[in-house]
């Protein structure tokens, strides 16, 4: 078998190797990689920095892939020499490896302009997973970060750092951002977007030096001005890594020169990816690398297919809420007709450059939804004379499927990986693909920058017989994230209001599903220190009462543990009469419900009751049902009444993913049904059982045992750990019985009562902070949130008067 | 409220829209609902009503709608254009 040695375990090398293995699995393959990671998707490092993805999510081929193909993977080895005559390479560990065929896929390295002090601590590049990890470790709230470089990479780095809490300034040497992808006008729009996200942008500044004694403290510009910084990221460009090409005496200009078959000047050595130069162009994006890889795989496998004719370059800025797309030759030149549309109010700028009736280039800012249409025109070179009226405003199509139906089979859907519509349809018909993740696995489509996800889904919807929507995992259509991802993202974010989250991560509008969910999440994550937006809440949470079918409300005051007094009962009776309450009802939860109260009477009713809210209307702590316990019962072995009252006092006024009903009973006879409550304390001889996840409503479920403890205080603490854990990890509207089923009681035990002390401490601390901020919502009777909070609609006469 | 007809006014940030305050399902108070894009979701049973056209979006089969009223902003005051019949109804009520 021939020995194929690949230097560079990056995107281009491995994509090409995959193709080679598919064509001709008759090589003995060795792969050298300087980075100590399996092959990962470099493009998504920005998403890792921004907390949208985790490092393990971006792995393309894990160790099992190499093993499965019998590939000898050597990570952490840098190849330092090539001997093209002896056909060997040498690693920095001194080991010499012979090859028959050598593939150089060494990518590029960051290029730094001449700035003094680049060696200081706190100065980073942004190229590898290790760089990203280092940035993540160093950034955080109160960190002042300066990003040098206002290109794609610099802006994505800036946004990532800002999401991590840093105060960020982007410095660019030219007077327009992303000049390689955008014209000046578009650059202005992008600048405004970045600034609206809270990122400072300084243009026309040449950075001269990194200030600071051993560690970065600021940067100094050529004009003498300075900016303070604890962290500096240099994203000023890349240079192809051609050192091995030189050692092998290949023809090298800026990159290792390759021809249309991707051959170098040595018949046994090939090159692919960012380290190459084809027709005078060095590419810096992934799509061309995949196209090169396909051609090269044919060449190496001995059956050359189509030749490589260069790529249409397309770039997309991967910052949520800042749509920027650019492709082709958009520059204005003689013979080029620009077609423009702009709306500064909306922040939308679009420009098409036409040459001889064909699309030559495109720039989209603020709305890149149609980018695939333009890419298609660019690649196919279609004549656009007849589409002229609808170049920038396509006629509204009746259904989303139409767009996809119109695309030719050869049209490229995923530009990053170069997957055509035909390939996807083939995968659907012949490989049983029905979901987006299956499609990703089989074709790799949509695993790059992700901008074609919608198109892939449209195709699946139109063609796959049993298409299964995966957005089920997303909260709703407004926010394309599953709830657990969103919780993690918001944890690292500085966003405090529902509208901000929707603007940045969603469609800016929201709906009845995501708004209340986000309201809850922000309240929980910020321990009550968020910006409350009542219009994002359900009516019950705007007026703190339960709306009834006739538009009146029910009022349930808090009666902790179901224990009340004659004085309280008297006040309740008085209120019932004074406000003509239609029904006074003893609830199933050992409390009293006053039904049929008018909205405008709510504040007065609460004042007259002079009792806190029982929160029977909200997703929050309901009640603790108790039995009489040791005080009166002849079987009682624990004081269930006072422990129950204490439990209610500790948890009340906190909001939860769904309602939380609790109970405490004095012995296993279980008179208050603690084993079918969300949290139950069951008294025993010498201690308590703490049970969780019970239900006796729409579902009936016996609670699971969380732990058995000896003292009442320990029981309350265990309940508290579970309670906070549920608040932080359950999806909105997920009751404890679904939550416990989904997560599993073993895992919950490990992460609450049996967790390390530090973890428990952190849970207790966040609980305490939330509790400290919690107040009785009925106190809004004194200071309404809003002058109209409790006011019903008024007759016109009164309004006018 | 005019002649016992309640009018709900929605502030969508960039414009105001007015509709009857009665959900076509079972009369729920639309003004107490959650706004989702250009629609409001009734607080009682979750019917979704478009605020610009008044059409019920969900459930799609209902085909029901509520009355909508044109609005405009004059000197910072939101004006809602109401049909004359409503004022006549009120005259009758007063009389
Ligand atoms: C943060 C970030 C975001 C990006 N976003 C996009 C995007 O949205 N769209 C897009 O199209 N492109 C994007 N890119 C660019 C894209 O990642 C690159 O074009 C692509 O990864 C290049 O692939 P490659 O295989 O040529 O090089 P690389 O992926 O860099 O792989 C080269 C590998 O070779 C190794 N190596 C080099 N020399 C040696 C040696 N002597 N011995 C052993 N190993 C060696 C390196 O360690 C490296 O792992 C982004 C890049 C970054 C850093
Ligand atoms: C709109 C519909 C509903 C309203 C307004 C409503 C309201 C209430 C109220 C106010 C209480 C008393 C709570 C308290 O005292 O804190 C209660 C208790 C209860 N509700 Fe409902 N409820 C509704 C639907 C349901 C449904 C659909 C179920 C079951 C499938 C249900 C099961 C219960 C049970 C079991 C209790 C008693 C809880 C206990 O004692 O532990 N409810 N409900
Ligand atoms: S649960 Fe036990 S202690 Fe409580 S009332 Fe019933 S029998 Fe008595
Ligand atoms: S009354 Fe509006 S949905 Fe039923």
Features:
heterodimer; A: FAD/NAD(P)-binding domain; FAD/NAD(P)-binding domain; Enolase-like, domain 1; 7 domains; 5-stranded parallel beta sheet; B: 95 residues; mainly beta; Rieske Iron-sulfur Protein; 3-stranded antiparallel beta sheet; binds flavin-adenine dinucleotide; binds protoporphyrin IX containing FE; binds FE2/S2 (inorganic) cluster
Verbal overview:
- The complex is a heterodimer of chains A (801) and B (95).
- Chain A is α/β, with parallel strands linked by helices.
- In chain A, the strands form 13 sheets. Chain A has a 5-stranded parallel β-sheet.
- In chain A, helix 1 (11-23) packs parallel to helix 8, helix 11 (421-430) crosses helix 13 (453-463) and helix 21 (712-729) packs across helix 24 (757-773).
- Chain B has one domain: Rieske [2Fe-2S] iron-sulphur domain (Rieske Iron-sulfur Protein, 3-layer Sandwich), CATH 2.102.10.
- The mean pLDDT of chain B is 86.
- By secondary structure, chain B is mainly β.
- The longest helix of chain B is centred in the last third of the chain and has 11 residues, at 84-94.
- Helix content of chain B is 12%, strand content 34%.
- The structure holds flavin-adenine dinucleotide (FAD), protoporphyrin IX containing FE (HEM), iron/sulfur cluster and FE2/S2 (inorganic) cluster.
- The site of protoporphyrin IX containing FE has 16 residues of chain A, from strand 36.
